[in-house]
Design goal:
single chain; alpha/beta; Rossmann fold; eight-stranded mixed sheet; 16 helices; binds nicotinamide-adenine-dinucleotide
């Protein structure tokens, strides 16, 4: 393929050199003449292991050239990668100044091009930037329509500086947001040699995945540092602790828990997080990450309350009371907190949980009577009864029965789903997912 790469900084120079190595004919474009001169002289414009040698090889084999002339690069290639910078502004927003400039140039060049062209952004941009800035500007300056007259995609780069060539050529996953089918096919072809998971998705999701990944990386680093500080103070090797913890792949290093949903609770997580913070306080170690986790958990209960009270209904049926389905463990269940706050606000609440009952025939009834007498009186044994007698239903656990409510829900029902039991209910009633 003939590829132009706009912006030859860290991402652009690696993308240009590695794409050339993969057999594409590449034109690298930068407004900074010194970077263009460097590439054409076979020298990397940035410090990156192995990059100068790769650029020298690709330039000498005529697969890679560089220019300041954006228009020529567009006319001579089929696909453009946008790799310009999106630095922080004082407001914390990102600056799209370089993006704006390059999209204007691309749009103007496309005006005089007859062949189809595809624009693929590799820069990191907040969700909505592709639609509101990139597409809008290119359409405006070209007079063409995105998705039909020219292709559009976003293919976020996940390389790490210092190992950029390896990361580019050995991605562990491909994330590609595509506006149109032709762009999807081009991205499939550009990524066909990689043996990894590939996700060809919509543009906004792809934009967000990149931010989600970087926020996650940053969270991991600060979490590990905070644990390290505490370990040092306790004369424990934090490296050993995190190494051992990371060796567990069912819960610790896995997809488990990585689903938006309701607050955590139960007999372990809140208790142990509190205890760890207490221990740190006694060592004079501040724990901003652990503190924020507790705060975020409380906020999630606030959000659920807002969704429930926002419906305007006074009769609320809570489906689930224990902290998760299949257990009668009520210790620190966030659903108990939710029920108590609703009752406190004067809502008429009834509760169903197959594992928790106030009826004397069930083994745990004494515990409920003793620990939560105010809730025991509003626990019922029939799901149908809760559904019939409530205007808002709150799905609180992943009980199989709660995933099949479709037949019983009335159009006038509001369903507040805290566990993503059935988003399909949105077609049948007023459905509110807590974070979707
Ligand atoms: N650096 C990384 O490790 C990394 C990794 C993944 C994603 N990203 C993202 O990729 C993007 C680029 O990052 P970077 O670190 O390579 O940036 P950079 O600042 O190193 O490079 C940007 C380049 O774009 C050039 N440029 C600016 N305006 C131009 C224009 N109108 N026409 C042509 N060239 C122009 C600049 O001269 C510069 O060479 C950013 O959005 C960044 O967030 C960076």
């Amino acid at each position: 393929m003939r590829i132009s790469v706009f912006g030859i900084g860290y991402v652009g120079s690696v993308s240009a050199a590695c794409s050339a190595q993969q057999g594409h004919s590449v034109v690298a474009v930068d407004s900074d003449e010194s970077k263009v001169t460097a590439i054409n002289a076979g020298v990397a414009p940035i410090v990156e292991a192995g990059l100068s040698a790769l650029i020298a090889e690709q330039v000498s084999e005529n697969r890679l050239t560089a220019t300041v002339k954006a228009r020529n690069a567009i006319l001579e290639t089929d696909v453009s990668y946008i790799c310009v910078g999106t630095p922080s502004l004082e407001t914390d927003d990102i600056s799209l100044k370089q993006i704006t400039h390059v999209c204007t140039e691309i749009g103007e060049a496309l005006r005089s091009k007859n062949e189809h062209h595809t624009i693929i952004t590799r820069s990191t941009m907040l969700p909505g930037s592709m639609e509101n800035v990139v597409i809008r500007l290119i359409e405006k300056h070209s007079g063409l329509t995105a998705g039909t007259d020219f292709g559009v995609g976003i293919y976020p780069e996940f390389l790490r500086e210092g190992q950029a060539i390896f990361d580019f050529t050995h991605p562990s996953t491909i994330v590609a947001g595509c506006l149109d089918d032709q762009t999807k096919e081009i991205l499939r072809s550009l990524t066909s040699q990689y043996d990894c998971e590939k996700h060809y998705i919509d543009i906004r999701t792809a934009e967000m995945v990149k931010y989600c990944a970087n926020a996650w990386h940053a969270s991991k680093i600060s979490f590990a540092n905070e644990i390290g500080w505490l370990c040092k103070k306790l004369e424990i090797d934090g490296h050993k602790v995190l190494d051992v913890m990371c060796s567990e792949t069912r819960l610790n290093m896995s997809r488990h828990y990585m689903r938006p949903g309701f607050a955590f609770g139960g007999s372990c997580l809140p208790k142990d997080l509190r205890a760890l913070r207490h221990k740190a306080r006694h060592q004079d170690i501040s724990t901003p990450v652990l503190d924020a986790i507790m705060l975020a958990n409380e906020r999630q209960i606030d959000r659920a309350i807002k969704l429930i009270t926002g419906s305007g209904n006074r009769r609320v049926g809570l489906l689930g009371l224990a902290f998760k389905a299949g257990t009668d463990d009520l210790r620190e269940s966030p659903l108990v907190a939710l029920a108590e706050r609703l009752i406190g606000k004067g809502y008429e609440v009834i509760i169903y949980d197959r594992a928790v009952s106030a009826s004397p025939s069930k083994g745990n009834s004494r515990a409920v009577d003793r620990v939560l007498p105010h809730l025991a009186s509003i626990l019922v044994d029939e799901l149908d009864h809760v559904i019939d007698c409530s205007d808002t239903l709150v799905v609180g656990t992943e009980d199989e029965d709660f995933k099949n409510l479709n037949g019983q829900i009335r159009p006038e029902h509001t369903v507040v789903d805290l566990v993503r039991a059935d988003p399909g209910l949105s077609e049948r009633c007023n459905y509110q997912g807590i974070c979707w």
